[in-house]
Design brief:
This protein is mostly helical. It has one domain: Rhopdopsin 7-helix transmembrane proteins (Up-down Bundle), CATH 1.20.1070.10. It has 14 helices and no strands. Helix 3 packs antiparallel against helix 5.
Length: about 300
Amino acid sequence: IFGSAPHLNSSLTHSPVTGSAGPMQAPLLQLLRDLQYFLDSVYQEDWSSGTVTNLFVFCVGLPVNCLAIYGLCRLVKSGMAVPVYVINLLVSDLLQLAVKPVLIARRLSPCPGLQLQRAYAASKMIHFFGLCGSIWFMVCIALERYLVVGRPLWYRSHRGLWRTGLVSLAVWAFTLAVGGLYVLGHLVVTVSEGAELLFLLIPYFLPFPLLVSSCAATGRALSGPGAGVVSARERRRVLQTLGLVLGGYAVLFLPRYLARWLLWAKGDSRPAQLFYRVTGELVGLNPLLDPVLYILVRKDVSSRL
């Protein structure tokens, strides 16, 4: 993910589309080839884990995420804001999980047909949007945790479900807009790697200072004069939630973006390529980490009820 990687070789980047094409289908086939070439350069086949790991993540992550979403949906009626953001985070994970069978099938097929090519191109775009959504809903969860501790009065008066719903819709709209501009921009114009990496600062690196600032502000609020109103159990739960969110981003997403910069700067350097591949393995494990938030959020809401 996170930009083209021309120095990595992919056996599937230029694989042919099987089947004959008439005069009317030729432009469509060419567009699919161009789109596949771009998406392969964006993701590379090493962006995710290997086939076996992909199957494991799909088989374990799909039921776990579905159960977590079901449990959190039952808590929405409590009027708390956290479950709404966590639900959206898990939905973004489901988007990534839902397309894994297509990505695995494409990986195992040396000569894919036209239908598989179409599904493959759509699946990679969906996965791209799912990753963007995961990152930005992590930011929403961190900011909400700060408001619970640092601005409790404001939070209680602005925690309606319709407000959190609007914020969630805004995040999805932002994700679709950025992802759409990114994909369409590469299909219409030629973008240099440096400009591409600068553009990816918006959806992938900008959350980092926001997450760090939220965690730091929450820590100051918990150690300030008003921290006495927060019980030790709630303080520990808030810190656990923020630690999971910030740690998940710092371990799974941030290294991948830094690896892309390193690969661009070092080119054919073997350590840079190895780092790029390892970070791709970590990104594929993202759907297994987020359901842990369900446990923390459920305890948090239950204690408030």
